[in-house]
């Protein structure tokens, strides 16, 4: 990547980067703007990694998997795969092409927009049942606990083929792993990880004898039996879906509820013209950016903005900053505009590692918001009274007080 402007001045002044977690997720926007404006390639001395914050730079890095590798892990911590004990059979998200391409090709069939629509009736029924429960509560509720957290777990379990009778155990494991993953070390939830792996090892054998219409069955059909690496790949994929497919959707829904509650005009537009909802989901994805950042490792010395990142160093792709970059989205990039016509957001990243579950996340968000607006058009949330989850990579409400708006 070649520099296109004068060399960047050494760090000085107020701009800098501090990883967010918990309460500091409430408003990282000023920090992001300062980075974009004065330190588009920033070196974080504490941890010895680098940060990219402008849309064009993050997009280019996401596309260039040869130079910006995922094989070293997705956090800004070095030795991630060794620390997690996954050097022999890394999950798909820690593979580079062509190995990543080959494995992704095996499972893409189940995640196309057309295939995803098959889950719509079940998702809608789940959301309606939860809203019925919320309608019966007095004094408001925590919308995260009642809907935004259990909904993604339901969808992930359905994709993986978890039978209804096993959902209670699965949801318990999911909660423990998601909480540990938020803190950057999902394997510390040892009991949940052991239970999940043991369960899916049994489910793999069950699906060999009794295949069903789910992702585990797809992988069992495509990967050779008796191959320990194949089994590890299936277990790794199931774990990745649990760890990465839950809190991200929770983050989108919580952030979307906050934004719509705070902007009656935009909400009224959706109530008057529901056909705008798919476009609104894209704008909400841009502004919420549930995955605020992930890291890559440069495979060669890389010069950008007059500074050089040495080979082997981590680079944090700051999607949350890139998605609010006025250079890409205009001077009102921080404002919700469901009619916005701009470039593709990076909430699902870009290139070979574009989120496999993007179509499912879009469908879940569309249905949840559609049903929520229809049932409680005047809902309110207490953003100031909400709390944010820990962890440096996913921004999500851990709790969000909700009022139906009915008198």
Could you provide a short overview of the structure?
By secondary structure, the protein is an alpha+beta fold.
Question: How would you characterize the overall build of this protein?
Answer:
- The chain has 407 residues and is an alpha+beta fold.
- The chain is 48% helix and 9% strand.
- It has 18 helices and 12 strands.
- The strands form 4 sheets. The chain has a 5-stranded mixed sheet with strand order 1-2-8-5-3, covered by helices on one side. Strands 4-12-9 form a 3-stranded antiparallel sheet.
- Strand 6 (302-304) and strand 7 form a beta hairpin.
- The longest helix is centred in the middle third of the chain and has 20 residues, at 190-209.
- The chain starts with 28 loop residues before the first helix and ends with a strand.
- Mean pLDDT is 87; it is low at 1-13.
């Amino acid at each position: 990547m070649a520099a296109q402007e004068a060399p960047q001045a050494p760090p000085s002044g107020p701009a800098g980067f501090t990883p967010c977690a918990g309460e500091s997720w409430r408003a990282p926007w000023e920090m992001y703007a300062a980075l974009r404006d004065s330190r588009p390639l920033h070196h974080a001395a504490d941890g010895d990694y680098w940060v990219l914050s402008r849309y064009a730079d993050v997009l280019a890095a996401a596309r260039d998997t040869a130079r910006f590798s995922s094989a070293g892990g997705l956090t800004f911590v070095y030795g991630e795969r060794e620390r997690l004990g996954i050097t022999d059979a890394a999950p798909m998200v820690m593979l580079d092409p062509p190995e990543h391409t080959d494995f992704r090709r095996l499972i893409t069939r189940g995640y196309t927009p057309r295939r995803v629509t098959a889950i719509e009736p079940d998702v809608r029924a789940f959301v309606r049942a939860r809203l019925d429960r919320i309608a019966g509560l007095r004094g408001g509720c925590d919308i995260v606990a009642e809907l935004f957290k259990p909904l993604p777990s339901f969808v992930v379990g359905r994709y993986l083929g978890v039978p209804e009778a096993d959902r209670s155990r699965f949801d318990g494991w999911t909660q423990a792993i998601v909480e540990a993953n938020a803190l950057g070390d999902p394997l510390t939830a040892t009991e949940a990880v052991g239970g999940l792996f043991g369960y899916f090892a049994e489910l793999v054998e069950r699906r060999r004898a009794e295949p069903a219409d789910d992702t585990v069955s797809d992988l069992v059909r495509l990967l050779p039996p008796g191959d320990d690496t194949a089994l590890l790949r299936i277990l790794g994929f199931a774990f990745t879906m649990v760890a990465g497919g839950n809190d991200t959707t929770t983050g989108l829904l919580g952030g979307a509820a906050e934004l719509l509650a705070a902007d009656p005009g935009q909400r009224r537009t959706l109530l008057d013209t529901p056909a705008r909802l798919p476009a609104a989901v894209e704008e909400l994805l841009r502004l919420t950016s549930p995955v605020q950042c992930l890291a890559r490792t440069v495979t060669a010395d890389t010069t950008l903005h007059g500074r050089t990142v040495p080979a082997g160093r981590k680079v944090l792709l700051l999607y949350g900053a890139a998605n609010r970059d006025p250079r890409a989205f205009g001077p009102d990039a921080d404002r919700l505009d469901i009619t916005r016509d701009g470039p593709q957001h990076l909430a699902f990243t870009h290139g070979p590692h574009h989120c496999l579950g993007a179509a499912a996340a879009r469908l879940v968000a569309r249905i949840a918001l559609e049903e929520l607006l229809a049932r409680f058009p005047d809902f309110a949330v207490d953003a100031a009274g909400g709390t944010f989850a820990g962890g440096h990579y996913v921004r999500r409400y851990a709790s969000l007080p909700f009022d139906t708006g009915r008198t």
